[in-house]
Amino acid sequence: MLAPLRDVRARPLRDLRISVIDRCNFRCTYCMPRETFDCKAKFLSRRDLLRDAEIIRLVEAFTDLGVSKIRLTGGEPLLRPGLAGLIEHLAGMSGVEDLALITNGVLLPQMAQDLASAGLGRITISLDSLDESVFASITGYRGTVGRVLEGIEAAEQAGFTRLKINTVVQRGVNDHTIMGLVKHFRGSGHIVRLIEFMDVGNSNKWSLDRVVPGAKWLKRIHDRWPLRPLASQYPGETARRYSFEDGAGEIGLINSITQPFCGQCSRARVTADGMFYTCLFSGQGTSLRPFLTNTCEPQALTELICRSWSEREDRYSQNRGRTGKTELKVEMYRMGG
Ligand code: SAM
Ligand code: SF4
Ligand code: SF4
Description:
Elements: E1 15-19, H1 34-37, H2 52-64, E2 69-73, H3 83-91, E3 98-103, H4 108-118, E4 122-126, H5 132-138, H6 145-157, E5 164-169, H7 178-185, E6 191-196, H8 214-224, E7 227-229, E8 240-244, E9 250-254, E10 267-270, E11 275-277, E12 286-287, H9 298-310, H10 316-319, H11 332-335
Parallel strand pairs: 1-2, 1-10, 2-3, 3-4, 4-5, 5-6, 6-9
Antiparallel strand pairs: 7-8, 8-9, 10-11, 11-12
Bound molecules: S-adenosylmethionine and iron/sulfur cluster (2 copies).
C-alpha cells in the first residue's frame, strides 16, 4: 500500500471533504446567518461549480495519494443537480473505500432511495434540537423538525443504518433541549454527536461563553445513562465515542474548542469551485481547477496537492486566541463542513 503523504507535522492526508455546492435552503445562525446572507451573499452560479468530470479527476488524484475516505458536503449537498449520478461514479472508483454525505436532511424524503441505489455508503444528518421553535430560530426559520425526522425515516427505509446525527450545541440557545434529543435517539441505532460551537467563518458572532464544554455533557449524560468509553476506530477520529452501558447504543462528543485534535488532523477540503484548503479555518487556499481539465497531465495535479499538503502547518484550534492573527476565514458553507 502507498505510504500516505505527510505534512510538516507528520500528519497523513487520509480524508477529503468535497463541497458540491455552496447554496443552502437553511440559514443556520452559526453558519450562514440570514442577516448577512439573505441580502449580501454571492453564491456560485451553476457554471462555476466543478463539473462531475472535474470532481472525478480530483478524487482520482487524491485516491492516488492514499485518500480512501470521501465526504460530500456543502452548503446543502442535496441541492446539487444530478447528485446521485455523481455519487454513482464516485462509488465505483477503486480507491474510494468510504463514501459519505452530510446533509440537513430535509430533501432526503425524495432523494434517499436514489442515493442508496447510487452506492452512497453513509449519511450524517444535522439536527440541533427536537424543539420546533428552537430549531426554527437556529435554521433562520427555514426548517422544521418534522421534516428532518421524515428525512431520517426515509434514510432508514432506503437501508442506511447507524446514521450520525450532528448537533451543534450553543449555550442559551439549544443546550436545554440536548438531553431530550439524546433520549430520543437512544436505542434507535443512530449516533448523536454533540459538537462544540466553533468560530468558523467571520459572521456567526462566536464567543467562548456560548460554548458548552463536551466534558460537561459527558458528565450529565453519564449521570443519567451510564457510559463507557470506546476505542477510536481509526487515527484522527474527531469524535470521542462512548457506549451506553445499558446497550442503548452510542454517542460521540466533538470537542473542537476545549480538546482540539489538530495533532491528528488528516482532512483536506475542496470547495465547490475547486479551491483546496488544508484547514477548516484557513483564509488562503490553492485553486485546483486549472489542473482538472482533460488537457492537463494528472501528474501536475498530484504534484500541486503534494506540495500544498507537505508544506501544511495548520493547527488553528490548538492556537486559538494565542497568535494575535486576525486573518479573514473562508465561511463554512463555502469551505464545506
Ligand atoms: N448543510 C449540511 C448540514 O448542515 O449538514 C452540510 C454542510 S454543514 C456546513 C456541515 C456541518 O457543519 C453541519 O453538521 C453543521 O452543523 C456544522 N457546522 C456549521 N457551522 C458550525 C459551527 N459554527 N460550529 C460547529 N459546527 C458547525
Ligand atoms: Fe446550511 Fe448546513 Fe450551514 Fe445550516 S449548517 S446553513 S444547513 S450549510
Ligand atoms: Fe484540522 Fe485545522 Fe481543525 Fe486543527 S483547526 S483540527 S488543523 S481543520
